[in-house]
Amino acid sequence: MTTRHTSPLRIIFAGTPDFAAASLQALIDVQEANQYELVAVYTQPDRPAGRGHKLVASPVKQLAMKHNIPVLQPLNFKANQDRQDLADLNADIMIVAAYGLILPKAVLDTPKFGCINVHASLLPRWRGAAPIHRAVIAGDTVTGITIMQMDVGLDTGDMLLKKECPIMPTDTSGSLHDRLALLGGQALLEALEPLRVGQLNGESQDESLTCYADKLTKQEGLVDWSQDALTISRKIRGLLPWPGAYTQTSSGTMKIHAATLLDTDNQDFENGEITMVSQEGLAVSTGKGSILITELQFPGGKRMSVQDALNGKFKEELRVANILGQESTS
């Protein structure tokens, strides 16, 4: 966007989960002082949730309604009426953050200055559905937010602004998500004023540096104890809080809620063998090195520390020399 815009920006915001709500909150906090006008919010339709399967509004919708911002929830933009509703808003720009819909070119071209995206990676490193999780699983030491101009490709548009965020050795996807959500709001506000006055130009992405952040599946959480300890510990952290890592025991599936890298040296134990049990955790051997499991959950039980598990009915599963990853043969 290179054209100077002197009147207040008419903004449409499109997003759905908590990550997006942080950016919307940042806009709400400054819209009057910074010459922004939030004319509408787009979000995914309400979804059934919980045991009662009651329809629940997205975090973005709840926030918009709290501040009396009009909310639109089309299933997609295939219907002419949905596209006309968008055009009638006469927006200068649409800001998209984890909306959950692929926007067709007709939608991207509707706002005067197009659509920009708050993306949770330092593009072109991670494109796709799960950039936060993939960064942790891959062992990246830094990630961040990229504000990008959207085009018809998947996260392929020009980069407008980047802000870095370190990935700590103890980070889970959950903890990193929360920091990036706040950073996304900061980056968005930092980009909007230069965009408004035509002083922020895009930089094309280097296609040779990109990776695809595949969508997560529950099956991906199964731990392969033949892998090395560093890889396994990253996977456990990267899959928290969802879908979570798990392993098989003779009493069924044991979820692993927290674990740390213990060592990376070769040891003379079987893969998945419990080599030490203490109140601090379970030491488990891997293809190379070992990890320390500190929080877990057995079928029908709740998340608990190893210390609490040792006092419960599953303590037989936590004995030294037991092999994780083996299902019951009875």
From TrEMBL:
It comes from Marinomonas piezotolerans. This is Methionyl-tRNA formyltransferase. (6S)-5,6,7,8-tetrahydrofolate binds at S121, L122, L123, P124. NCBIfam families: fmt. Signal peptide: none annotated. Residues 215-313 form the Formyl transferase C-terminal domain. One of its GO terms (cellular component) is cytosol. GO terms for molecular function: methionyl-tRNA formyltransferase activity. Gene3D superfamilies: 3.40.50.12230. It catalyses: L-methionyl-tRNA(fMet) + (6R)-10-formyltetrahydrofolate = N-formyl-L-methionyl-tRNA(fMet) + (6S)-5,6,7,8-tetrahydrofolate + H(+). Attaches a formyl group to the free amino group of methionyl-tRNA(fMet). The formyl group appears to play a dual role in the initiator identity of N-formylmethionyl-tRNA by promoting its recognition by IF2 and preventing the misappropriation of this tRNA by the elongation apparatus. Belongs to the Fmt family. It comes from the Bacteria. InterPro entries: Fmt, Formyl_trans_C, Formyl_transf_N, Formyl_transf_N_sf, Formyl_transferase-like_C_sf, GART_AS, Met-tRNA-FMT_C, Met-tRNA-FMT_N. Its EC number is 2.1.2.9.
